[in-house]
Each structure stands twice: as structure tokens, then as C-alpha cells.
Amino acid sequence: MSRIAVVPGSFDPVTLGHLDVIERAAKTFDEVHVVVVHNPGKTALLPIAQRVSLIEQAVADARLAGTIRVTSWSMGLLVDYCTEVGASVIVKGIRSQVDVAYETPMAIVNRDLAAVETIFMLPNPAHAYVSSSLVRQVAALGGDVAPYVPRSVSDFLQAPRE
Ligand code: PNS
């Protein structure tokens, strides 16, 4: 039976840290589903469909090995998506103790709800300080986000707007 892992998140926008975790998950599992989910606790910059498209481009550009599907989920609990596609594992990246504190309650709730286990992966330390919120801030103030995000994202954020 093929082992499917779900890598969920807001991905607003996807960063090099996210991409690093997606790549590690793809090396570890038969199939990886990158799932964009609206987080009501965060003010969104990009529409969900745009986030999906930027991740798709980034995954294609990085030529990652393995089977990676990029999608979104707005039909309720993340574990409902996991059950629907037969995924028993969620993969999350951990940069620091702050992330451990943020992720642990979600991991336990997801396990209680549907016996879906969460595996924490450590990204390359080079990405330890990269976050979508910092990227949003730098982009909004006209800074260069290229060191922190895939090419698809920096091109999109830095394209001139009408
Ligand atoms: O990148 P984020 O914002 O930290 O990702 C958080 C996210 C979207 C994965 C989380 O909020 C989530 O899973 N939301 C879906 C709703 C849900 O299942 N909630 C209960 C368990 S946390």
C-alpha cells in the first residue's frame, strides 16, 4: 500500500523553508499532497488559488523527485481531507521551539480526531528564520524577497501591478 503524507499550511506565500520540507517529505513517502488551507487566524495576502498555482510552479521548477500533488481544502477539518485520500500522516516543518509549541496542540487534536499522526521535519537551518509573514512584510514595503522564496513567488510578488 502506498504511504501518502499531507503537507498542510497557509503557504501565503510558499517559502524556501516550505519547499525544503516538501522535498524531504517527497523523499520519505510514496506520495505527498501539499494542501493549502485558509487559516482564519491570519490575514491573507494571496487568494487560495494563487497560492496553489505558485506552489505548483515552484515544485515543477525545483524538479523534486517523487509524486507531489498540490491542492486546497475548504470542506472542513484537515483530517477529513486525510481520510478522503487515505493519508495517515501529516508532515510539518519545525524551525524552533516556537513552532513546536504552535504545532503540538494541532498534532494532538488531529490524532484524537482521526488517528492521523504528525511527523515534524527539520528544514535546512539556512531557512530557520524564513516565514511567510516576514516575506509578506518585506514585499509590501518594496524589499527584495528573492533570497527567501522560490523564483515563482519572487517573480509574482515583484511584478509591476496596475
Ligand atoms: O501554515 P499554517 O497557517 O500554520 O497552517 C495551519 C493549518 C492551516 C494547517 C491549520 O490551521 C489547519 O489544519 N486548519 C484546518 C482546520 C482544522 O482541521 N482544524 C483542527 C485541527 S488544527
TrEMBL record:
It is found in: Cytoplasm. ATP binds at residues 10-11, 18, 93-95, 103, 127-133. Keywords: ATP-binding, Coenzyme A biosynthesis, Cytoplasm, Magnesium, Nucleotide-binding, Nucleotidyltransferase, Transferase. CDD domains: PPAT. SUPFAM superfamilies: Nucleotidylyl transferase (SSF52374). Substrate binds at residues 10, 42, 78, 92. GO terms for biological process: coenzyme A biosynthetic process. Its cofactor is Mg(2+). The record marks 18 as: Transition state stabilizer. GO terms for cellular component: cytoplasm. GO terms for molecular function: ATP binding; pantetheine-phosphate adenylyltransferase activity. The keyword Ubl conjugation does not apply. Homohexamer. PANTHER family: PHOSPHOPANTETHEINE ADENYLYLTRANSFERASE. Reversibly transfers an adenylyl group from ATP to 4'-phosphopantetheine, yielding dephospho-CoA (dPCoA) and pyrophosphate. Belongs to the bacterial CoaD family. This is Phosphopantetheine adenylyltransferase. It comes from Rhodoglobus vestalii.
